[in-house]
Amino acid sequence: MNKRLLTKPACMIAMMIVTCLLLAACGQSTAPTASSSTATKTETGADSSTNTAADRTIDTAKGKITIPAHPQRIVSTYYHGTLIALGLKPVAANKEWWMGSPFLKEQEQGIEDIGTPTSIEKVVSLNPDLIVINDFDVKSYDQFSQIAPTLYVPYTAYNSPKEEIQMFGKLLGREQQAQAWLTEYDEAARAGREKIKNVVKPGETAVLVNVREKDISILGDNYGRGGYALYDGLQLKPLDNVKKEVIDSGKQILKIQMENLPEYLNADHIFICFNDGTTDAQKNAVLSSAIWNSLPAVKSGQVYDLPYDTFSYYDPKSIVGQIGLLADMIVDKNKTK
């Protein structure tokens, strides 16, 4: 009996000590976006943040993951242009599909190619501290995540380039750089609209059409080929049916037949882009047809040929550049009128 009475207080004291230690540990683990390890790394890039945390925990489509607060060796199978706009130059990216924008020539120098499809062996050899992927490589997520923390961002995570860069800015702690791009975009858009204001009258409509070999498609404002620069930046007006069926519906691409051209291309201005691989015969099948030449914009000389190797890119820096190019094209075509 006496033995139990003597040991009970000691047990209570021990339990209190353990409880205090657990509470202290829990208090440390709930710190937002920081890892549980002691932070020792400091910012080495352009970010002026005073946060010295070595890691940050973020919510992703694959759940919570812990990534470096200031990654130094990013491998990006997609979104490399967005990372560049945020001041984060990847060590490697997909060259065949996504690199090559004329607006990123200088920034892409030194970036290694990870191949198409992505070479897991190449990624391993680069010793990345962060891997960024989209839907094209999500099937290999488990393999990538064994190499380094892997940030998967699906196409459905954003609805516009503005949303995209703000999202990445928040995920990677680069909000200031994201805001800087938004400011750059707004300034380029205002300059473009000012340049064309004496050429494009209020309410004039435009349509963006893409030809890929034998396929003809109407594109929206969030599918590349200059659509965002055209509709959001320069604020040319889409046709009502295009706005409803292609843009507002979220489809962003609508395949049509030749006989549908008058229905969907009855605009004041036509912007057309031919994909790589489309032959001259396939181009002529469209451009030499009677139905094409009956269109109002064709008759009035308001057709603009968009080079695929310039307008296929859809990263933030390329979009800003496309606004200026489109404005120049519109002004130049109408100089003699």
From TrEMBL:
<feature type="compositionally biased region" description="Low complexity">
    <location>
        <begin position="31"/>
        <end position="46"/>
    </location>
</feature>
<dbReference type="GO" id="GO:1901678">
    <property type="term" value="P:iron coordination entity transport"/>
</dbReference>
<dbReference type="InterPro" id="IPR002491">
    <property type="entry name" value="ABC_transptr_periplasmic_BD"/>
</dbReference>
<dbReference type="GO" id="GO:0030288">
    <property type="term" value="C:outer membrane-bounded periplasmic space"/>
</dbReference>
<dbReference type="Pfam" id="PF01497">
    <property type="entry name" value="Peripla_BP_2"/>
</dbReference>
<dbReference type="InterPro" id="IPR051313">
    <property type="entry name" value="Bact_iron-sidero_bind"/>
</dbReference>
<feature type="region of interest" description="Disordered">
    <location>
        <begin position="31"/>
        <end position="55"/>
    </location>
</feature>
<feature type="domain" description="Fe/B12 periplasmic-binding">
    <location>
        <begin position="73"/>
        <end position="334"/>
    </location>
</feature>
<protein>
    <recommendedName>
        <fullName>Fe/B12 periplasmic-binding domain-containing protein</fullName>
    </recommendedName>
</protein>
<keyword id="KW-0732">Signal</keyword>
<keyword id="KW-0813">Transport</keyword>
<feature type="signal peptide">
    <location>
        <begin position="1"/>
        <end position="24"/>
    </location>
</feature>
<comment type="similarity">
    <text>Belongs to the bacterial solute-binding protein 8 family.</text>
</comment>
